[in-house]
């Protein structure tokens, strides 16, 4: 039996990197996808690639920081499918600059997308999942930098630390309503979020000597999204090639 057979799965940031690889893996496990991202043209391309492989997917253009867009995503998903089984709350942006050079506007933008957007989508999902007999599952994408510090990315690290504790709190708050909430904490993964010139030093800094692949994150996300993690909530799964074990 496929691990997400007929499950309705909303994936934010679902048309690039970790989100796109997860869309492909989840669809191959029987999921019906609602992909959410900023770029409508690219969104439609990804959906038609999935449809060509016989998968069920729609794209809903949204900015994860917009309350109106968040409501629209969930109403479109429920209108089409009647329910939402899984939210993969994965959209995010990187931010790398010495703290003394970061403007307050830049700080707020990072925290707005990487933490506020995660809260907003989780809250909308929970409102729907509470009314469903089978509850639901939320997987938030945090980062290993939700657990450790590093120079030059204080806003990002603060936001991701926030996602880790948001995940704990939501996990505890909704455990009795059959809504599980966990976080995926990737190490350095080879996606467009990492500038090309950074890839060689980050490979070297990782004990396994390479960047992780989006497909490897997708497998971890599938574990968290499916019944394979049925007794797990409020937790964060670090998948980082050994980085945080150093
Ligand atoms: N790649 C890594 O090394 C790494 C490490 C740790 C955590 N992460 C996290 O993984 C997640 C996915 O990142 P990725 O590496 O696949 O990068 P990516 O850039 O390939 O994908 C991120 C997606 O999020 C979308 N997005 C950004 N802002 C948005 C907004 N306001 N509204 C809607 N969509 C928006 C982007 O358009 C993009 O499609 C992010 O949360 C990121 O912080 C990545």
Question: What ligands can be seen in this structure?
Answer: nicotinamide-adenine-dinucleotide
Note the overall shape.
Answer: globular
- Poorly predicted runs of 5 or more residues: none
Instruction: Compute the number of helices.
Output: 7
Task: State the end-to-end CA separation.
Answer: 38 Å
Rg calc: 17 Å
Strand order, largest beta sheet: 3-2-1-4-5-6-7
Structural class: alpha/beta
> How many separate structural domains?
1
What CATH architecture would you give? 3-Layer(aba) Sandwich
Which band does the percent of strand residues land in?
Answer: 15-25%
What is the CATH H-level superfamily? NAD(P)-binding Rossmann-like Domain
What is the count of β-strands?
7
Keywords: Oxidoreductase
Protein name: NAD(P)-dependent dehydrogenase, short-chain alcohol dehydrogenase family
Family: Belongs to the short-chain dehydrogenases/reductases (SDR) family.
GO molecular function: oxidoreductase activity
Would you kindly provide a written description of the structure presented here, covering whatever features stand out?
This protein is an alpha/beta fold and 246 residues long. It has a single domain, classed as Rossmann fold (3-Layer(aba) Sandwich). 44% of the residues lie in helices and 16% in strands. The chain contains 7 helices and 7 strands, in the order βαβαβαβαβαβααβ. Strands 3-2-1-4-5-6-7 form a 7-stranded parallel β-sheet, sandwiched between helices. Helix 2 links the parallel strand 2 and strand 3. The longest helix is centred in the middle third of the chain and has 26 residues. The mean pLDDT is 98. Nicotinamide-adenine-dinucleotide binds next to helix 1 and helix 4.
């Amino acid at each position: 039996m496929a691990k997400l057979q007929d499950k309705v799965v909303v994936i934010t940031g679902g048309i690039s990197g970790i989100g796109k690889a997860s869309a492909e893996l989840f669809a191959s496990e029987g999921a019906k996808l609602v992909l959410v991202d900023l770029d409508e043209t690219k969104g439609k391309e990804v959906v038609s690639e999935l449809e060509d492989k016989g998968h069920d997917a729609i794209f809903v253009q949204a900015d994860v920081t917009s309350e109106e867009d968040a409501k629209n995503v969930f109403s479109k998903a429920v209108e089409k499918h009647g329910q939402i089984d899984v939210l993969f709350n994965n959209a995010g942006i990187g931010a790398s600059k010495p703290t003394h050079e970061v403007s307050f506007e830049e700080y707020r933008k990072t925290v707005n997308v990487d933490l506020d957007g995660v809260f907003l989508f989780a809250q909308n999902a929970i409102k729907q999942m509470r009314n469903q007999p089978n509850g639901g599952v939320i997987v938030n994408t945090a980062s290993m930098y939700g657990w450790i510090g590093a120079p030059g990315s204080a806003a990002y690290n603060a936001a991701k630390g926030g996602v880790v504790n948001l995940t704990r709190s939501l996990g505890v708050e909704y455990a009795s309503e059959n809504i599980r909430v966990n976080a995926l904490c990737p190490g350095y993964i080879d996606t467009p979020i990492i500038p090309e010139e950074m890839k060689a030093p980050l490979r070297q800094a990782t004990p396994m000597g390479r960047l992780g692949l989006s497909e490897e994150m997708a497998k971890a996300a599938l574990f968290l999204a499916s019944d394979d993690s049925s007794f797990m909530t409020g937790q964060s799964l670090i998948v980082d090639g050994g980085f945080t074990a150093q």
